[in-house]
Amino acid sequence: MRLKPFLAALSAAVIVSVSSAMQPDSQDAQIATREGRWKDALVLWEKLGNLHPNDADVVAETGWAELQTGDISSASRSFSRALRLSPDHERALLGRSALAQKQYRFDEGVKWAVQATKAHKNSADAFRALGDAQMAATRRPDAETAYRTAVTLDPSDARNHAALAESLRARGKVADALGSYRMAVKLDSDSAALREGLGRVAMAAGLYGESASAFADAIDRLRRSNPDWKRVDQLTLNLIENLSKAASGFAKGSQTERDLRGANNRTLKLADTLALLPEFQDADPVLNPVVGQRAQAWDLLGQACSAELAGLEGDRDQSADAVVFREQARRAILAAQAGG
Fold it and tell me: In whole angstroms, what is the distance from residue 35 CA to residue 306 CA?
């Protein structure tokens, strides 16, 4: 199992500490790096590199931006140059590790990360990167150990808990993975990626109500800024599946009413929010069938949640209607995916 893309992105976007003399000029570059806007980051770090050609921090961060924008050769040169300027430079060592992984040289990736942990024994970032390298090399027990060290060194960083959760899930330790993801979400409640991870692990644990709520929260966070609607569509299918399993499980006694009620209330609130989006309100099913199908799906999903909640109050006919509405919503999302 290779490193999950969203965890790899979280690991890459670390804010470097730059020389105090150049901090004002570097703020925009640091922000672009943190937000994963790698093309912007590359332009900004290169500009700083022209002003500070012998600053290892700048050279290493330029290498990271080059790596993330696909310029492997330039990244390799930048990391090598940064290490000549500062032989134990943490970001350059970790950049070398990430670069090796990109080239499927996984053992080499581990070697560079190990070197970083030896040079920076108190760095949670270094140990998390070592865990990433070991996950890429399918050394899952070693990865778990590295991630646990990262958590110990910096328990306040959600990325450490999320990375540990992924390694635990890969080893079949679903209950432990669930606890780690819950902690990650508690520490960083705004991350859609962490909510998505929690949803997948909760689903694996058979906690369908919690999973549905987590997927709804992930969608809510994604929709706030230029959402990737294809990703939202897939999360919506996951949400519908878990709502259905939660309802079915409740009928069989394996799911709690509290979780089922909470998931439907959360999804209904999200459906009402999405209904107010201008693109949904102005959707023309003829001119833009994909948006029209997506808007229809969320309208149906809102109706499904209202019906399910009415069913929990004793109206069995409403519970049956919820099943129909969820299936219609699922088909509308599938149609949007096919058309997009």
Answer: 37
Cα 82 to its chain centre, rounded Å, is 29
Q: How many domains does the chain have?
A: 1
For 52-80, write each residue's pLDDT tens digit. Answer: 999 999 999 999 999 999 999 999 999 99
Return d(Cα 314, Cα 206) in angstroms, integer: 25
Q: Helix H segments across the chain?
A: 5-12, 23-34, 38-51, 56-68, 72-85, 90-102, 106-119, 124-136, 140-153, 158-170, 174-187, 192-204, 208-222, 229-252, 257-275, 278-281, 289-312, 316-339
Please indicate, yes or no, whether the overall pTM of this predicted structure exceeds 0.85: yes
Residue 292 falls inside a structural domain: yes
109 part of a folded domain: no
Residue 297 structural domain: 209-340
Asked if residue 65 belongs to a domain, the reply is: no
